[in-house]
Write a structure and sequence with these properties.
single chain; 89 residues; mainly alpha; 2 domains; two-stranded antiparallel sheet; 9% strand; elongated
Length: 89
Amino acid sequence: MQLKHNDFIVDRAMVPTREVLEFTTQDVLLARQKLLTRTIEEFTQQVSHLLQQLKLQPTTSIPKFKCFACETYGGGHATNECAMVQEEV
């Protein structure tokens, strides 16, 4: 039996060696472009699905709250309601 240069013997069994695949720059760019395209398509589908869910939800008015804070002393009251400011006047 004649051995080829790609083969070697391990425990009397013929095992072919693995070869390294060579890629050109164009192959790598094409693969990355396909991956990026697939990722963008999946993202677009997810965003479209989320937009459809938002459109299906009933719109409710969101209550607007005024945040009062005393400009002089801070706290949970408006400046015109501050007892400390009214005492000074």
